[in-house]
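Q: Given only this backbone (121 positions), what sequence would you predict?
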């Protein structure tokens, strides 16, 4: 959770192999069906799924939609996603990532998608 532990996350050094993230993308206003988009993101110390999404949004793709707020302690659940091939439901702020990881991220409930990873609460 680098955004909490360091005042300027842009000063972190890249360490280890980059993370490959496959992320669910769907904008009902323009898309007929959902797609998966792949991003290769430099690994930085203490990355979580949530900080990975922030890194993508801030430095690679500002069109990525996700609830960009969190408690940072795994309590509130606003950062809930389905992770991996099996689609395990997790709180993104509480899932640490290792260098070189390959992660699949989908919305918590695909039936309630507003856009990308944002769902009706």
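A: Predicted residues:
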């Amino acid at each position: 959770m680098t955004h909490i532990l360091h005042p300027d996350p842009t000063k972190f050094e890249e360490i280890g192999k980059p993370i490959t993230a496959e992320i669910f993308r769907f904008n009902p206003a323009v898309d007929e069906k959902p797609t998966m988009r792949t991003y290769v993101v430099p690994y930085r110390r203490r990355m979580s799924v949530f900080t990975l999404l922030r890194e993508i949004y801030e430095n690679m793709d500002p069109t990525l939609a996700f609830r960009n707020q969190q408690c940072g302690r795994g309590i509130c659940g606003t950062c809930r996603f389905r992770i991996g091939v099996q689609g395990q439901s997790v709180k993104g702020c509480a899932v640490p990532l290792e260098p070189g990881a390959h992660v699949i991220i989908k919305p918590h409930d695909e039936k309630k998608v507003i856009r990308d990873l944002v769902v009706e609460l």
